[in-house]
Inverse folding.
């Protein structure tokens, strides 16, 4: 079976038409994972039993000649920050090293209800905190396009699994760029939906006002299919919005002629690698040839996005991670004699360096005497950043930028310099802060043959437009 | 240097972390480097800017309504069992590091 050519539609049709079975497809993927994932490290846990049960259910349906649901029998995988009932869920952390959730994340449950087969749980930076996947407590992930390089993060396992043909599609989460940045580094499609578009019920929280779940896939259409499946109001998540979900797949083929594309000068300045710049500028020309109207604009507060993000995200993280206390679930230190010692040592031994750094920074930013100067200040600048986009979207329908300032960097290159690592997210954090949707699609390669990502940002709840532009670009081919 | 050893100890205490000597000195270095970078926010005058705690307040809600009224769709009747049944006792305790039959156990809280 040629796994690299499978898309959701071709996989599902092959099973529907009995050219193959979901079971055979699942077995082929597991063979591939067993053979190749040792060198990549995308999977933390395989969910064989659950996969076989689902594949069998789908195959019997196909054998009876009944129509399969949209993802019927299609092998996918999910980032290990999403709870799966009865299956270990670690968030890439030692502190949850043996945590078995008693319920399913809504997004995962919706995928399975639509027929998807979950192959396993994917490696990620601890609590989704990182831009290289080197913060996983278990092992780093290697970029399948060049194994000496990082796959990006924090959804590094999700991007690597899709890039290495170890899953047809995957779910990731994005708080500061964690879907789009690894998608760019691994040369796949990654979509962060609007804040509130997809339920986060069962997503292990990092920064609640910024966390999003979204798909990584090989094609824009596959990303649209997954989004259509997982989107929509969920009574279990009060932040999931009651906004109608359009048929993203049907919208894909609408013409892009006349769509107004903004190009913000702040995303093309200092720090942008010339090869990335050239590829993205080429893509903008392609979009112009397709009939889009290209409009230069400014998002003046962009340079304040990283400091704003690292105050808001860490403050929320310090609060969210307070729940890990060694009492109800998770790791407990053995040596403690008092309750307070038990809390401290469990957290000390259970959390990795980056999680501790962010807990400390967030606690500092929220502490008496610093709250106004740091946390409140960041919340106010968040308003300014959001207004930049609101202003821009009065005159354009989408904004095109590079996804990352450089292509994938080497493993170990930035581990000793947290600030340099944070700057890998410089073009992605703005969308998380404003809550707008963004997609990264491949738009070429560097001379070293590393993938380059094109980011398309859209208006709130207007994923349809950015998917449509991305789809048109993908069809036109990389110039 | 804005963050000292003493600050790190104080904040670690608030965050329920112990941190080794090595971790503490590294933390002083890292927090100072990050906070120096964060300093650029002070260039901006934000005196008349409303803070933004979340996105949901601006989008996907009825803009004509104010405050909690905007989130009326997220409200529901107060019902006995909520949206999901409570987890069975056994399942609730199954992830606990040190449960007995009925409770989560912790080291003693009060020293005699």
């Amino acid at each position: 079976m040629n796994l690299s050519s499978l898309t959701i539609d071709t996989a599902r049709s092959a099973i529907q038409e009995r050219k193959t079975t979901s079971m055979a497809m699942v077995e082929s993927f597991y063979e591939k994972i067993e053979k190749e994932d040792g060198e990549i490290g995308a999977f933390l846990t395989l969910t064989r039993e659950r996969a076989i049960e689902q594949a069998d259910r789908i195959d019997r349906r196909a054998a009876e000649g009944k129509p399969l649901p949209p993802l019927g029998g299609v092998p996918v995988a999910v980032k290990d920050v999403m709870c799966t009932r009865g299956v270990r869920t670690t968030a890439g952390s030692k502190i949850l090293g043996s945590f078995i959730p008693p319920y399913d994340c809504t997004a995962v449950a919706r995928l399975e209800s639509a027929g998807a087969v979950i192959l396993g749980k994917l490696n990620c930076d601890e609590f989704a905190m990182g831009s290289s996947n080197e913060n996983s407590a278990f092992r780093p992930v290697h970029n399948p396009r060049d194994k000496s390089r990082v796959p990006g993060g924090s959804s590094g396992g999700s991007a690597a699994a899709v890039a290495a043909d170890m899953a047809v599609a995957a779910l990731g989460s994005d708080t500061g760029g964690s879907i789009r940045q690894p998608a760019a580094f691994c040369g796949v499609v990654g979509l962060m939906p609007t804040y509130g578009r997809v339920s986060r019920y069962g997503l292990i929280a990092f920064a609640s006002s910024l966390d999003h779940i979204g798909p990584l896939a090989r094609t824009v259409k596959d990303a649209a299919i997954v989004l259509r499946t997982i989107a929509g109001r969920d009574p279990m998540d009060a932040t999931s919005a009651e906004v109608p979900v359009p048929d993203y797949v049907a919208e894909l083929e609408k013409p892009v002629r006349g769509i107004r594309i903004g190009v913000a000068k702040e995303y093309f300045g200092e720090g942008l690698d010339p090869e990335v710049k050239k590829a993205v500028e080429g893509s903008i020309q392609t979009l112009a040839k397709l009939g889009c109207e290209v409009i230069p604009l400014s998002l003046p507060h962009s340079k304040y996005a990283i400091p704003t993000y690292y105050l808001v995200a860490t403050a929320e993280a310090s609060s969210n991670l307070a729940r890990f206390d060694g009492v109800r679930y998770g790791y407990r230190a053995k040596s403690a004699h008092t309750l307070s010692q038990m809390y401290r040592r469990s957290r000390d031994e259970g959390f990795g360096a980056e999680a501790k750094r962010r807990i400390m920074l967030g606690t500092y930013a929220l502490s008496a005497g610093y709250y106004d100067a740091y946390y409140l200040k960041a919340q106010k600048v968040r308003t300014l950043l959001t207004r930049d986009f609101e202003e821009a979207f009065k005159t354009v329908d989408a904004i095109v930028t590079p996804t990352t300032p450089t292509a994938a960097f080497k493993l170990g290159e930035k581990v000793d310099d947290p600030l340099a690592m944070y700057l890998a997210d410089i073009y992605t954090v703005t969308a998380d802060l404003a809550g707008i949707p963004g997609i990264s699609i491949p738009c070429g390669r560097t001379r070293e043959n590393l993938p380059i990502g094109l980011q398309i940002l859209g208006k709130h709840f207007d994923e349809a437009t950015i998917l449509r532009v991305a789809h048109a670009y993908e069809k036109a081919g990389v110039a | 240097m804005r963050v000292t050893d003493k600050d790190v100890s104080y904040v670690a205490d608030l965050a329920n972390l112990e941190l080794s000597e090595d971790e503490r000195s590294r933390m002083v270095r890292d927090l100072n480097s990050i906070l120096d970078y964060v300093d650029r926010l002070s260039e901006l005058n934000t005196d008349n800017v409303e803070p933004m705690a979340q996105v949901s307040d601006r989008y996907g809600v009825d803009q004509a309504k104010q405050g909690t009224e905007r989130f009326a769709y997220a409200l529901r009747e107060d019902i006995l069992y909520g949206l999901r049944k409570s987890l069975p006792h056994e399942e609730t305790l199954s992830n606990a590091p040190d449960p007995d039959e009925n409770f989560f156990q912790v080291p003693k809280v009060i020293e005699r």
Summary: Chain B has three helices and no strands. Residues 61 and 72 of chain B are 9 Å apart (CA to CA). The two ends of chain B are 42 Å apart (CA to CA).
